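# step 3/5: fold
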Amino acid sequence: MESLVIGALASLGAGLATAIGALPVLLPINLTQRVQGIMLGFGGGVMLAATSFSSGNGICRWSNVVCN
């Protein structure tokens, strides 16, 4: 696939995930504290994973280690 198509599909997927994540705020859904905690933990894990994966390439370039 061409990189433009892959980028467009990734952006569409991110936008849909954001819209789904906003549904509990927009709709009158009562979530238990347990479900809210699970969702918060999952979101935090995704943020940590994104941070570690995005900084991984920079660390490899900085330390002159071959990272494939």
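# step 4/5: annotate
The chain has two domains: 1-30, 32-68.
# step 5/5: archive (pending)
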